[in-house]
Every structure is written in C-alpha cells, then in structure tokens.
TrEMBL record:
Keywords recorded for this protein, A-Z: DNA-binding, Transcription, Transcription regulation
Gene3D superfamilies named among the record's database cross-references: Tetracycline Repressor, domain 2 (1.10.357.10)
Xref: Pfam families: TetR_C_14, TetR_N
Domain HTH tetR-type: 1-59
Protein name: TetR family transcriptional regulator
GO molecular function term, any single one: transcription cis-regulatory region binding
Chain residues forming the annotated DNA-binding region: 22-41
Spans through the membrane: none
SUPFAM superfamilies: Homeodomain-like
Protein species of origin: Virgisporangium aliadipatigenens
Length: 184
C-alpha cells in the first residue's frame, strides 16, 4: 500500500506541483483518509521517496548477504544490480525534476541520503570479516554515494542517453581504494 500511495502522490505532484498538492488530495485519490496517509508517511515530503525507501531497504539486505570479503567490490556489485531499477523509471525522472525545484524536497533528500549512508555503513561493518572500523565503512559508503551522484549527474547531462552501468563501473574503477593494508 505504501508504494501505491507514493505512486498516487507522485502523479498528483507531477500534475499540480508539490506545494499545490495537499495530503487530503493524495489520501482521497488513494481512497484513504488523511489520518491513514500519515500511517504510511510521516510527512508529505516522504511520499516522494516512498518507493526509494523500499528499494533502499532491499539494497541494505543485499549488502549484508553479498558474498566475498572486499567491501568495495560488494558495494559495486549490489549498487550495479539496483541502480538501473532505482533511476530508470519515468517516476524517477519526475522525482528528480520535482526535487530540483522544491527546496523542502532537496532538504528531505539530504536527510534521506544521510540515513541511507549510515545504514549502508552499518551493513558493511556487519558483513566484513575482519570487521571494518567505522571510519573505513563510512569512507567507502560516502565514496560509493559520490559515485552514484556523479553517475546521476552525467546521466541527466546526457538527457538520459548515457549507460548508467558503464558510468557506474567507470566511477568504481576510478575510486577503487587499496584497503588491503588498512588497519582497523
């Protein structure tokens, strides 16, 4: 239901604009009450990120379960599998345009990214043997997030014609750390 409600919200935001769309309108279009809306999302801004949150949770699970010892390779493989699904939909393009023109959404995106980065860092630390220290896990996570952001920027700059997987592979190759000798 959360994903369906997010899709209804995105449709209304695209038609009417974010600020002009009320929670009441979203709830009514989904056949819910305003109170029911807030059971799924704490704020209207969160409806923009509803399906991204669900995918983010799945990415975290895969990071924990990815075989192998190299945390950078793990991030690369998991994010490579998911990035196309996360960004290729028409809804993703609509979301990016909406965030670009709405200050409250840019702020919420910043918060969401910080939360996601912490979850990824925790997942890397939980899966590594020997365990990664917090600094290294945070650094690898932030480097991977920078790679994703740069891929998205280049993809947008090319009008969506660039191959995201090729860009992601290039970014991970350029940023590949040598952590074999890093002490925890």
């Amino acid at each position: 239901m959360r994903a369906e409600l997010a899709a209804v919200a995105m449709r209304l935001f695209a038609e009417q604009g974010f600020d002009a769309t009320t929670v009441e309108q979203i709830a009514a279009a989904a056949g819910l009450t305003k109170r029911s809306f807030f059971r799924y999302f704490p704020a209207k801004e969160d409806a923009v990120f509803g399906d991204v949150d669900i995918l983010g949770e799945q990415v975290i699970v895969e990071i924990r379960e990815e075989p192998g010892d190299d945390p950078w390779h793990c991030l690369h493989q998991v994010l490579r599998r998911w990035q196309q699904q996360i960004h290729d939909s028409e809804q993703a393009q609509t979301r990016l345009r909406l965030i670009e023109v709405t200050p409250s959404l840019r702020a919420r995106l910043h918060e969401k990214r910080a939360e996601w980065r912490q979850s990824v860092s925790d997942a890397l630390r939980a899966r590594s043997d020997p365990p990664l220290d917090a600094f290294t896990a945070d650094l690898l996570t932030n480097a991977a997030a920078a790679a994703l952001d740069t891929v998205t920027q280049e993809w947008a700059r090319t009008g969506g014609t660039a191959k995201r997987d090729v860009l992601l592979d290039r970014a991970f190759a350029l940023l590949r750390p040598d952590i074999a000798g890093v002490a925890n």
